[in-house]
Amino acid sequence: GESVGLHLPTLSVQEGDNSIINCAYSNSASDYFIWYKQESGKGPQFIIDIRSNMDKRQGQRVTVLLNKTVKHLSLQIAATQPGDSAVYFCAEKGQGFSFIFGKGTRLLVKP
Amino acid sequence: KAGVTQTPRYLIKTRGQQVTLSCSPISGHRSVSWYQQTPGQGLQFLFEYFSETQRNKGNFPGRFSGRQFSNSRSEMNVSTLELGDSALYLCASSFRTGVETQYFGPGTRLLVL
């Protein structure tokens, strides 16, 4: 498959465990953030978003936490499954309508 | 509802040539953004079109250009290809410009020899 990053930080977890993927963003004025999942050979897939007026948002098995004080985002995946193995990107809304993507974290789920 | 489609999926060109990539957004979406993805630089914003107008542009040379048609379909063009242009080019669409979730296509893998 296509490599989206040769030297990405990697998080390895056991199937069934919870995963936490972290991301630092750059602009304290950013008001919208998205987490994407990218599997090999595919485009990024939307997981969950959060606006800056919130600290936490929950989806199905996923939770995003936003700490504006330290410009930090995290994605929590509950009961991680083998199908969750992918590269995860955080994206912050930049100027106009552009998004600035983080370098990504590779999540490996061990059966 | 069909997702974002991109054509072609794979392309091989030689230095100096030009290339045109196509993107069809999700039906009803009027904003189309383009990104370049490489292992070294990650995902980088190229430009965004809304209602046939370029709204934003990233930090790429003028060899990279694009346009959007009245049906919201978009094309991007790269002229005078360089080896460093080898990348996955991703298109994303959203309903409108502004604070909106973007949905990505599968990308076009461009290899420049």
Keywords:
heterodimer; A: mainly beta; 4-stranded antiparallel sheet; B: 113 residues; mainly beta; 7-stranded mixed sheet; 53% strand
Q: What do you see in this structure?
A:
The complex is a heterodimer of chains A (111) and B (113). Chain A has 111 residues and is mainly beta. Chain A is built from no helices and ten strands. Chain A has strands at residues 10-14, 19-24, 32-38, 45-51, 56-58, 62-67, 72-77, 86-93, 99-101, 105-110. In chain A, strands 1, 3, 4, 8, 9 and 10 form a six-stranded mixed beta sheet that branches. Chain A is globular. The two termini of chain A are 21 Å apart. Chain B has 113 residues and is mainly beta. Chain B is built from no helices and eleven strands. Chain A binds chain B through residues 2-6, 31-32, 34, 36, 41-46, 49, 51, 89, 91, 93-104, and chain B through 4, 31, 33, 35, 37, 39-40, 42-45, 48, 50, 55-56, 58, 88, 90, 92, 94, 97-107, 109.
